[in-house]
Amino acid sequence: MSSGVEADIALDAAVVLSLGMNRVLGRTAGLAGRGAEALAALAADKAEARAAALADAQAYDQVLREVLARNARIAALEETRGKLGANDVELPAPLEVGEDQAAEELTAWCADADRRLDEIEHGLSERLAAQVAAEIFTVPAEGLRADTGGSRPDDHAEATGAEASRAEAGKKDAGVEDDEVRRTLERVLKRLLPDTTAEDRRAVAEAVRLLAETPSVAEAEAVLTEVRLRVKAANDHTELHREAERRRAAEREAAEQAEAERRYVLDSITTAFQDMGYEVDAGFETLTADDGTLVLTRGSWPDHSVKMRLGDRQVRAAMVRERPAESEDDRRLDAEREQEWCEAFEAARERLEGAGVRSAVTWRLDPGVQELPVTAAARQTGARAGTRAGARKGERSGERERQRERERSE
Predict the structure, then answer these.
(1) Cα–Cα dist 359/279, whole Å
(2) Strand-pair partners of 318
(3) In this predicted model, what pLDDT tens digit does every residue of 284-302 receive, in sequence order?
(4) I want to staple 124 with a disulfide (CB 3.0 to 4.6 A). Which of 38, 194, 334, 353 is the partner?
């Protein structure tokens, strides 16, 4: 934009923290108490009070985020519980935070929630392990005893008493070894994270199913190794999925924070200029418009207005004309209006700084240096007027030509 100014916008830390706490607390307007205290200390130029209030706000903001993390974990476990059909497992309720709750109280709740949620997740993993094992071992795996128990048939003589004793001992040993395989399998399966996907669960179950077909304990060990590998792969996939969910949540958090900050800046700009006697165009209420444009006018400015656009941490403003300048007096008036606007912008910057919105001017065009641009509506009106004037001139020219033709014919 020409004949204007550009400035970078930065929000005070107290404002940023306060807006974040507002969202957690479900508030949509104003500043949360702790952030407001830090901002008030800034305005009063009380450095020590501000430092203390800001530190308190930062600590409370961190606790609020810890609570949000536990609430998200509760929601995830609730979904997992439903998928496992374990609705009998009782989960703690998410915590609804109120601003009057002390940070120590919230920290204690987080610690208790961690303990309970760890126990619940472990229990759900056991439930999942039992489900996977039950799909395979509905009856004892007799195949595991096939070559480890009993004596071989003797075609020439009956087994002696010693041979019978060894056969019985072999059966007992086979039962012990089979129990060890089962216990080992249970320990491995309990490592499987409860929110493992159905696809990964099937992959683990396929490996477990091989145990039912394994003829010896020695070969079962090889199958157990494959089960371990598949459980690890499933857990790796689950951790990647969890990380992706955390990343998406962080992106949503950042987008919501950015919109809250943008709203705060726009509201602060509106208040500052309205207090100074400016009128803000109704279109300014559409705060989510892509271009973020608004128009400022004054009752004493019939021919001038200011277009302002808020971008990513930057504000751009320029004065424009509502109709083309037609004389030197118009141009002198332009310079006067530009000077008024420059002074008003500086006054607004001071007001905004008191609200925690700092600005650093990066480009400025002094009054009278460049001719003011004309609004698009004014250009269209001028073009239509010019077209009508041209048409009337053409009609008059045509009428004169027809009059001369009549005179020559006479």
Answers:
(1) 22
(2) 4, 307
(3) 444 444 456 789 999 899 9
(4) 194
Length of the chain measured in residues: 410
345 pLDDT exceeds 90? yes
- Return the domain boundaries, the chain: 4-8+277-385
Give the residue ranges of DSSP H helices in 276-327: none
Residue 107: which residues within 8 A CB-CB, separation 6 or more? 63, 66
* The two structure tokens encoding residue 270: 């509106």
Region of 223 please: left (phi>0), alpha (psi -120 to 50) or beta. Answer: alpha
Sign of the CA dihedral running 394, 400, 401, 402: positive
Is 0.85 surpassed by the pTM of this model? no
Query: The tokens 């310079």 sit on which residue?
Result: 335
Q: Where are the beta strands (DSSP E) in 188-313?
A: 279-280, 293-297, 304-310
Give the burial string for 383-401 (b: 16+ CB within 10 Å, else e).
eeeeeeeeeeeeeeeeeee
Which pLDDT band holds residue 366 (cuts at 50, 70, 90)? confident
Tokens representing residue 103 in the block = 């940070």
Helices (H), 8-100: 13-25, 33-43, 47-83
Strand partners, 315: 7, 310
Helix/strand/coil for 85: coil
Task: Kindly list the strands in the beta sheet with 357-364, ordered across the sheet, starting from the edge strand earlier in the chain.
Answer: 279-280, 293-297, 304-310, 314-321, 4-11, 357-364
The type of residue at 70 is R
CB count in 10 Å sphere of residue 106? 19
Structure tokens belonging to residue 23? 């969202």
